């Protein structure tokens, strides 16, 4: 498989994951533009999961503009975003700003083949390895409380999307890391098109630098491989790139996100 096809396939799997999350919501909204760009609204409080996702190497400003007009009619007061592969041109920057999305950020898009060799050992692991398990559908409040504390966000933001219905869908897997039986970290996996997307991997402040994030990541990758996935992907921040590099991921390209 060529390098470009590998990255494009992973980008397409991410777009499919966003669509699937929107479709899992009873009030979700999905529409594709003529060139394949996606408008998907989960109607949650998470901007990245309300809005437009284009996975073509060169996004079409006309198509993005049409979907922006549709989005403004549908989102109401909800936060939303535009996410694009690569570096946007001036027309797209102006288009986003004209719709109130004037904040631009760049996100490393990282991939890891699930048949690759072992990743490097994570330093600083706890003497007693953490327990990582799948959450039950009715543990959505625990999931929200741990992620909220890990990322400094109100749990209501998490529960606005990850309801028992969404967490109960077969393509969504939520994980909880525990130390001595006490919740200490959490993470999420979304499986589409034989790819697994990792998201929201976080640990509570008192449990950081003890290998919990790596333990969650390794568990997700092992489960996804057993489920038939061949590639893992994620959008990282500059701060988390080293952690995921040690887990075997590599930055393949940079994406752009526009938010309010």
Structure overview:
The structure is a single chain. The protein is α+β, with helices and mostly antiparallel strands and 260 residues long. It has helices at 3-23, 61-75, 90-98, 140-151, 155-159, 164-167, 212-226, 241-246; strands at residues 29-32, 38-41, 50-54, 81-85, 103-113, 131-134, 172-179, 182-192, 195-203, 231-235, 250-259. Helix 2 runs parallel beside helix 3. The longest helix is centred in the N-terminal third of the chain and has 21 residues, at 3-23. The mean pLDDT is 93.
Observed structural traits:
260 residues; alpha+beta; 11-stranded mixed sheet; 29% strand; globular
Give a concise summary.
With 260 residues, the protein is an alpha+beta fold. It has helices spanning 3-23, 61-75, 90-98, 140-151, 155-159, 164-167, 212-226, 241-246, and strands at residues 29-32, 38-41, 50-54, 81-85, 103-113, 131-134, 172-179, 182-192, 195-203, 231-235, 250-259.
């Amino acid at each position: 498989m060529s390098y470009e096809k590998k990255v494009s396939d992973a980008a397409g799997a991410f777009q499919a994951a966003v669509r699937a999350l929107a479709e899992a919501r009873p009030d979700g909204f999905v529409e594709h533009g003529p060139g394949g760009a996606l408008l998907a609204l989960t109607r949650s409080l998470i901007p990245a999961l309300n809005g437009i996702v284009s996975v073509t190497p060169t996004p079409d400003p006309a198509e993005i503009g049409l979907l922006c007009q549709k989005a403004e009619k549908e989102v109401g007061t909800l936060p939303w975003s535009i996410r694009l592969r690569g570096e946007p041109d001036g027309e797209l920057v102006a288009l986003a700003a004209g719709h109130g999305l004037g904040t631009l950020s760049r996100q490393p898009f990282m991939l890891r083949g699930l048949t690759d060799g072992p990743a490097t050992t994570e330093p600083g692991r706890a003497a007693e390895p953490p327990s990582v398990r799948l959450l039950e559908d009715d543990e959505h409040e625990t999931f929200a409380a741990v992620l909220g504390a890990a990322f400094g966000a109100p749990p209501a933001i998490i529960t606005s999307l990850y309801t028992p219905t969404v967490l109960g869908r077969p393509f969504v897997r939520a994980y909880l890391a525990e130390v001595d039986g006490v919740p200490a970290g959490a993470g999420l996996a979304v499986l589409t098109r034989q790819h697994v997307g990792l998201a929201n991997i976080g640990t509570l402040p008192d449990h950081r630098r003890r290998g919990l994030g790596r333990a969650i990541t390794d568990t997700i990758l092992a489960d996804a491989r057993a489920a038939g996935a061949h590639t893992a992907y994620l959008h990282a921040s500059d701060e988390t790139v080293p952690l995921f590099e040690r887990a075997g991921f590599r930055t393949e390209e940079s994406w752009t996100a526009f938010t309010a």
